[in-house]
Amino acid sequence: MGEQQVNEKRKNRIPHTYAIIFIIIILATVASYFVPAGQFDRVEVDGKTLVVAGSYEEIESNPVSFFEMFKAIPEGMSKGSTIIFYIFLVGGAFGIIRETGTIEAGINKVVRKLERREKLLIPITMFVFSIAGATTGMAEESIIFVPIGIAIARAIGYDAITGTAMISLGAASGFIGGMMNPFTVGVAQSMAELQLFSGIAFRFSVYIFILSFAIFYVMRYAAKVKNDPTKSIVYDLELKNKQQRELKGQNILPDFTIRHALVLLIIAGGLSINMYGVFNWGWYLTELTASFVIVGFAAGIIGGLRINNMFDAFVEGMKLVAFGALIVGFARAILVVLENGLIIDTMINSLAALIGSLPSTLNAVGMFFVQVVTNLFIPSGSGQAATTMPIMVPLADLLGIERQVAVLAFQYGDGVTNSIIPTSAALMGYLAIAGIPYERWVKFVWKLIVGWLTITTIALIVAVMIGLK
User: Fold this and answer.
1) Do residues 457 and 372 make contact, with C-beta atoms less than 8 angstroms apart?
2) Sign of the alpha-carbon torsion through 209, 215, 216, 221
3) Which tens digit of pLDDT belongs to each residue from 320-337?
């Protein structure tokens, strides 16, 4: 009980994400009274609105009133409505898929296939969850699999950290890679006026490095623990859970049936059609949303869900993403205030001068670390995209950086540190359900984060050098 109270106190010390964004809205409003108003000329080129370099000039100020500040919130919701409903409906579709039990049954199937080949369990589990992270943006959704991961890890001589890492860092690797992540890359590219999921080959290449390093890191730690259990960062906690070392709960995992196989085929087919539609039929958020909903309902029918269960799961799926969906509109309110106060271009001009003082190949790295810092305060990927991309896109234009690189800087800045920052809802959920103290997880994961930061920094420099579009 005392431990729970300590955790609550720690949680209360961290400002709520919505509170942080509202504070930024207030600061933006106050800034409209003091920051000089200004604007760039903009032109339309190939369907993109581009900022004209060197055209910035100061204009008459237009401070935002108290009432206009609050009015900006519903205006932000309205302007972000396409993305908001996209997140809600895609979340609902994946809620139905989860309800079919296909993911749990797939894990059960893999575990049974890997008897006496335990070393393969870590890379295969991390690969599977990375695919989910890269294609569906799986993060908080994977929390429910942590107890299964821990039970399996303990059964083959590893510890709770290994079991948690197999699930969480697998999903995180895919989330960072983000080849078809609808909640980060999809949202950011739509705001940057880029073709959805363009640059997929480059992202895939970087994803391979990110996932491979994570697998190596977790396997190295797991081998050390298996050889000498006292090397476990949570050795004292493992002693307390010694009676749970035998694999329990195998029977709570459903058997893999033909229905589950068909659901997997529907998901794979749906993702393939989405890819084809984006690159050949000009599909955008509306078409992708419709496609995901069809996939979800088809999976529910084939998975044997009754109609009421299907829609309960649909609503539950939307509930899980409500935090991230609505934060898009809330964050858009910041943009509304900055635009109405005529100071957003002044901010862009100042950032361009600051980051532009770096060597050209490091401009994108500067943008990347701005996103890393922002992620501490706005850990929601879609919320951070809505907050920062309206500034980063014209900034990239001014610095002569491809917009695709600006999206990469956001994507990596948002994703890499989610596995260590205390404001990450997914991370704190993993640790709470695993019973791992935050400081011990930091001790385990910090070197991995440094490695990921190094990989993504190099990737950004390469992207600038090759002019990734």
Assistant:
1) no
2) positive
3) 778 767 877 887 888 889
